[in-house]
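In response to a reviewer's request, we include the raw inputs and outputs for one of the modeled complexes. The four entities were modeled together in a single run.
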Amino acid sequence: MDNVLFEKLARFVDLSAADKHILDSIVEGRRIVPPGRDIIADGDNPDRVHLILDGFACRYRIMPDGQRTITAYLIPGDICDLHVFLLNAMDHSVGTLSECRVAEISRASLAHISKNHPNVWTALLIASLVDQAVLREWLTNIGRRNAAKRIAHLLSELLVRLEVVGRVAGGAFDLPITQSDLADTAGLSSVHVNRSLKILRDEGLVTLHRNRLMIHDVEGLKAFAEFDPRYLHLLERIAGDRLRAAI
Amino acid sequence: MDNVLFEKLARFVDLSAADKHILDSIVEGRRIVPPGRDIIADGDNPDRVHLILDGFACRYRIMPDGQRTITAYLIPGDICDLHVFLLNAMDHSVGTLSECRVAEISRASLAHISKNHPNVWTALLIASLVDQAVLREWLTNIGRRNAAKRIAHLLSELLVRLEVVGRVAGGAFDLPITQSDLADTAGLSSVHVNRSLKILRDEGLVTLHRNRLMIHDVEGLKAFAEFDPRYLHLLERIAGDRLRAAI
DNA sequence: CGTTTGATTGACACGAGTCAACACCAGTGG
DNA sequence: CCACTGGTGTTGACTCGTGTCAATCAAACG
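The model returned the following C-alpha cells for the whole complex.
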C-alpha cells in the first residue's frame, strides 16, 4: 500500500519478501504535522527516526546571526534523521513546509535491520550516497551559477524527484514554499529571487503562483539550468545485482 | 600499523577483533599516485574502491563550460568512491593534490563485509552521514558567508580534520593547493581569494605560503569564521553503544 | 637561463543585496 | 459585509561585494 520507503529502497536493491515484511512492520506511530512546524530540531536526540509519508519538508539551519539556510527538501519516502540513530544529536532541524504525514521508526527496529537485513541496510547506505550527490550538485549550483539558473536548476530537480513519487500532473506540482524559502535555499535575497522568477516567467519557462508551480517548457527549463539528472541516480538497480554477483 | 580506515571507523563504532582483522586483510594493491592525477574519473566504473592512506586529494566536477567545482577534500582514512560499489558510475572525479598513497578494496571484500560485518557496514554509513554534514556546512558557507569568512571557515575545518589524523604540528600543516583550487572550492574567483587571504593575513590570523598554512591565532580564526565543530561529529562513540543498547 | 605556473595588485564592470514603497490576498473580528 | 491586519509578492533606486581584465612579480622547473 503506502509503503513509500519500501518503494524507494527497492529502486536501489533487490529486496526479499522478508525485507518487505520488516519494512511494513517497523513503520509505527503515524501522525500529522501542520505546516511550519519542526519535525525534529537542532540538538534533539529522540529515540525514534522520522519518515515522510506525505507532504513537503525541509532541512534547515539557523546561523548565529539569525540567517537561515535550507540544505534539502524532503518528499515522501525520505527519512528525516537517520543521524539520530547513528550520531549524537541533530546538527540541524527538519521542518514542515506543507502539512505532512509522518511515520516513526524506533531505534530497536533499525538495530534489528542492521543485524538481520543487510540488503535493507545497504539500500539505506545507497540512499545516503544519493543524498550526498544531491548536496554536491547544490554546492556547484550555488557556487557557480547565477541567480536565475540556480532557481531553474532547483525547480528542475524537484520536478524529476516529484515525478518519481507521482506528485506531478500535467507539468505542474504543488510547491508550498515562499520566495523567502527559495532565497534561503539558493543563497540569495528574497528580492532577487523575485526578480529571477520574473526572468523565468518572461522566458516562458515556469510560473509559480499560489504555491503551485506550472512548468510551461520542461526541456527549455532543463536546458536553461544546464540540468543533467545523472546525479539523482534514478533506477540504480545495478547495485543490487552487483551485490549478488560479487560474492 | 597504518590502518587509517580502521582508526577512522573505530571512532564511530566498537569494532571487534574480527572486524579489525577483516579491515586489515581487505586493503590490497597499495600504490603511489603523483600530484595532479585522477584517482578515479567522472563516468568510471572500475571494480575496486579507493582509500587514501596518505596525502591530499579532492572531489571535483567539471561543468560543461569548463568551470570546476571542488566539493570535498579527502585526507588519510577517507574512501574516494564507495559510489562505485553501490551506484552505477561516478558522477564526479577524484584527483590528487599532493602525492598520495592509495589502497584498493575489491567489490568482493565489500560485499563480504556487508553480509558478515554489520558493525563495519554501519560505521561506513555513519561516515557517509558525516560527509553529508560537511557538505551541508559547505552549503551554508558558500551560500551565506562573505569571501574572507568562507575561506577562514574552510581552513578551520581542515585544521580540525587534519589534527584528528595527526597532520598538524605547531599550528601549521601542509596544504598543497593553489589559490585557484581554493577559488573553485569557495565559489569565488582566484583574484578574490587572493584578496581575502590578504585580509586574513592582515588580521594576523593565518599565512599561506609555499603550500604550507601557518595559523597564528587559532581561536581568532575560528571566531572570525563563526566555526562550530559540532557538524564534524568527532568522537561519536555513542553510536556504537546505542547499537548494542537498542537490542 | 628562459619558460611556466602561481601570487599580487589596480581599474573597472556587473550581479546581487539593501532599503523602501506599494500591491495583493487570506484571515480576522467588528 | 466591510475594515483591518499581517504575510507575501513586486518593483525601483541605490550600494556594495565579487568578477573580469590586465600588468607585474616571484618561484619552480626543465
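As requested, we also summarize the result in words. Residues 52 and 102 of chain B are 5 Å apart (CA to CA). DSSP finds ten helices and ten strands in chain B.
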